[in-house]
């Protein structure tokens, strides 16, 4: 009977000793894996920890012992940095810019991805090639023409003008991302809705969108975070101090004649905390949206 089973399965069962040796090798590799993961975690968290400690020190303590603990935790650094760096107005401007960018990119990319996958467009491959090229081109190529055009039409030095540029920059990648989700949605759902008399807008909002909203959320988060952290376009197209985002407020505060690095660290931490909190809350949806898309098709 043993011989028959061995012939049926095409291989002999592993010996008990061999199984134990494999298990011992797995167990032996575990401490090494944990050590590597610990080193990577320290590499990622270490600079942030030094950043936090620097925000609680005096400038003299930073120069004398930049990696050590502060002699006294100076929480008033955050209050001083908030006032002197004008972080309140900067964070408000950044929130308006990031949320508006995310909402606009979701709308533009969602409609474009739906058109590419569901409508009978002539040569859709040409549009996809255009999106790939637009994603790869650096924005520095268009900086001078954009600056001239925005000055002529009155969009220079306004948050709305900057948001329009962000829509144009971040929509191509978001379109490709949402398109990969749409390719996985069966068309039978939409066909049944059309039989019941639903139009394209109803089909998209009532049938398709609930099925692809993880991809839309991921695209919006990516665009919003990029707009929040973007520096080059913001410093070029925004000059009014009342419209400066947090990144430019922090940069202006850092450019003092003798910068107080404790206050600069505190202001930088104030800028980082909202994004960090948002990512912690939405990290599962964010990772799921990236991994489940696969950028198919």
Automatic annotation (TrEMBL):
Subcellular location: Cell membrane
UniProt membrane topology term: Multi-pass membrane protein
BP GO terms, sorted: transmembrane transport
Cellular component terms (Gene Ontology): plasma membrane
Ranges for region Disordered: 1-26
InterPro entries: MetI-like, MetI-like_sf
Domain ABC transmembrane type-1 stretches: 91-282
Keywords: Cell membrane, Membrane, Transmembrane, Transmembrane helix, Transport
Ranges that cross the membrane: 32-56, 95-116, 128-151, 163-186, 207-228, 261-282
Biased composition range(s): Basic residues: 9-26
Primary site of residence: membrane
Family of this protein: Belongs to the binding-protein-dependent transport system permease family.
Protein's recorded name: Raffinose/stachyose/melibiose transport system permease protein
